[in-house]
Amino acid sequence: MTILVTGSAGHLGEALMRSLSAQSRWARGIDIKPSAFTNMVGSIGDPGFVRRAMSGISHVIHAATLHKPHVATHGNRDFLDTNVGGTLNLLEEATAAGVASFVFTSTTSAFGAALTPAAGEPAAWVTEDVLPVAKNIYGVTKLAAEGIAELFARKSRLPVVILRTSRFFPESDDDPEIRNSYSAENAQANELLHRRVDISDVVGAHFLALEKAPVIGFGRYIISATTPFLSGDVAELRRDAPAVVERLFPGANTLYAERGWKMFPTLDRVYVNERARRELGWQPRYDFRFVVDCLRERREWRSPLALDVGSKGYHEEVFTEGPYPVD
């Protein structure tokens, strides 16, 4: 059984390849960039390359993509060719090869404008049933690729699972207000409450999706750390998030203060992973409760895999303002 991993030079691709190797599982990594975890260099936009890469493959994890950080540096056609055309090439060749499962890494960014409530409104409670409203070419192309994948699941009986992952990159936030007010570690610990997931847990979700796809047939899941909040908390979270956190985690504010950290004053959204936990049997470990326990015991709260993969960036160029330009 050989697993094809696209985007093997990226954050998730490397994490997947490292984890598959640690489990002594056969894997073939492909990417447009050479890396220690890339077996074949080429573009998923090239049907011939995809056909060659698919030879002998029994399962596919499609993590390659142009990301939000590329919106300001790449054209619309680049996004269409990679995110839509590349996904189509992979689906066609996977179907022809009769692969047993196809896991597509999508993004919670696909929800787009649906994530931003109006002023004075409660935080958005985001489940898979929320209707996406794409707000840039990245979201448009990821939604289009999801739609094509669903079509192949329905028409060609290709077992497909789509995982809408929340943030797992270690780079500083692109929002200058966040970047200038919080350390990257502080901001990312905060985000585990509502919009972040550790890359180790993301890998675990992908492996479960590979295993369960033949039974599921087609599924779409939010992959984010388990939130401690309930739907009844959303109004207060928009008004006073630190108060809600202290109510749920007594002493957390003191632990934060000892480290020189602070909580976000308000939260605008909460990603809900209940369906992934129920249907995939996913049990993410690295949540905010884990962070608090680690702070109390003065130990590292990020997974060893996250530390091993580290920061990669998204461009060869180094930008003076932020980790990447914002369009």
Automatic annotation (TrEMBL):
Going by the UniProt record, its keywords in alphabetical order are: Isomerase
Task: Pinpoint the NAD-dependent epimerase/dehydratase domain residues.
Answer: 3-212
Q: Write down the Pfam families for this protein, in alphabetical order.
A: Epimerase
> GO terms for molecular function, please?
UDP-glucose 4-epimerase activity
Under Enzyme Commission nomenclature, its number is 5.1.3.2
Q: Does the keyword Isomerase apply?
A: yes
At the top level, the lineage of the source is Bacteria
Under what name is this protein listed?
Answer: UDP-glucose 4-epimerase
Q: Which organism does this sequence originate in?
A: Rhizobium aethiopicum
Lineage at the top is:
Bacteria, Pseudomonadati, Pseudomonadota, Alphaproteobacteria, Hyphomicrobiales
